[in-house]
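Holo prediction — zinc ion.
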Amino acid sequence: MRVNVRNTNRFGHPLQEKFRGKMIYLKAGETLEMERDEAVLFKGQFKPLVRDKGGSQLPESMKSLVIEPIGMEIEEKPPEYKCQACGFKATSETGLKRHITNKHADELYDVTAEDAHKEIIKGES
Ligand SMILES: [Zn+2]
């Protein structure tokens, strides 16, 4: 099985490391395709830490890899506009707003009023 190995170095540093006799260079955020077994080995391969004079690890020496499956489409979920009050599902934000205005205008008003009241109490303490 082929997988993608992604460099997730959060400091944006590329990964440069020798693996099975080959020098691998992977920019931060980029992926490299390899066999799953190899990817697991590469990810687990020990990379010596480089420390600065203060003893903290240099960000560029941090190895941060994620193995991602290839060909598995991430299902694009349509955004859901769900009414928090009754669970009604609208197809658009406008639809949801309309629903709330139509069905929950009174409740909404009450909640807002109550919250405002709480705010006032909090402000006094
Ligand atoms: Zn509702």
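READOUT: Residues 2-69 form one domain.
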